């Protein structure tokens, strides 16, 4: 479910790839899901939610969402986010700090075309995170879209974000609680590594 | 591992308690672990990490940490956080926004006394998140503390934080992607609920 391409040679990328494969091999549920956390300077609110990572293409870590939803608004106001993976199957926690931006529209078009029509119907039908009178009203909106709309055409309020890490920590939990914490920080375009106390 | 006491009658608390029990019954790994996200106004950095929730006592959701670490510093500068539980076993995600403060020292003393000595040795030995020359240096510091220190005495740099939610969302994932999202917001001391679009 997570596609790697143009994977950088640098050690944190190679390690992430290796640990991801280990998590998958250990049957980690939703290994590609991560908590993305944001700060909205207008509301002064920190918020967090799980999303699914779809691609790591070079330095771009890409996921898709509604461009009008609260998280997209927060990214516009403050373009630094955290991304947190937690693979209990291998006791690995990956802690990332990154800057975030929208991807090219053409890439969002391509990705949208490749999805199943039911998912696209949800993306088209939903004013994400807006209130609605009932869950039944959501189901009705969805059914109408599924029957009547062109489900291969990306709506302009839906697309990808790419984040580029400047900090990656590999946190490996230990029974002793002496957890192993290896950190990589991007300094002048070089990744510097260090060990942190647990 | 998570103790409930003085549980409020309000619906979001009763629902959280019910869904927590369902997650435990479904053998959710680390159901009491959650991602706590912070914003540090000095560094302008959003960050996130998993911690273990120990108590819900009335409106206080309590966990313990190092008071000199980066997350404690962020809480001092910006006392609003998010807390995110993700129970894949029951497809429930609990999204919380809350304000946070330190708990009474005496309660931290009591909790510290009740922990196993090995955990306390880690708490005493570790300058949490500070760099150190090697993992072996961590092990040496730990061994010295374990042999030489009074492990029942809480160090002043360790203690509890309590957060009090003002927003709780129960997000239930569906195969259709028409996820069920029920939100409770604390408005003038009353919990108002609504349904959000997926």
Regions with little confidence, pLDDT below 50 for 5+ residues of chain A: none
Q: Percent of residues of chain A in beta strands?
A: 35-45%
Mean pLDDT rating of chain A: 97
Instruction: Report the C-alpha radius of gyration of chain A, rounded.
Output: 18 Å
Oligomer: homodimer
Structural class of chain A: alpha+beta
Give the second-level CATH assignment, the architecture of chain A.
Roll
User: Which pair of protein chains has the largest interface, and what are the residue counts?
Assistant: A-B, 52 and 52 residues
Q: Can you tell me the number of structural domains of chain A?
A: 1
Structural write-up:
The structure is a homodimer of 198-residue chains. The first copy, chain A, has a single domain (3-116, 157-196), classed as Roll (Pnp Oxidase, Chain A). In chain A, β6 and β7 form a beta hairpin. Chain A is built from five helices and eleven strands; from the N terminus they run βαββββαββααβαβββ. By secondary structure, chain A is an alpha+beta fold. The first copy, chain A, is elongated and about 55 Å long. In chain A, strands 1, 2, 3, 4, 5, 6, 7, 9, 10 and 11 form a ten-stranded mixed sheet that branches. Chains A and B meet through β2, β3, β6, β7 and α4 of A and β2, β3, β6, β7 and α4 of B.
What is this entry, summarized?
The first copy, chain A, is α+β, with helices and mostly antiparallel strands. Chain A has helices at 11-25, 70-77, 105-113, 117-125, 135-148; strands at residues 3-5, 33-40, 45-52, 55-57, 60-66, 80-87, 92-102, 131-132, 158-172, 180-187, 190-196. The mean pLDDT of chain A is 97.
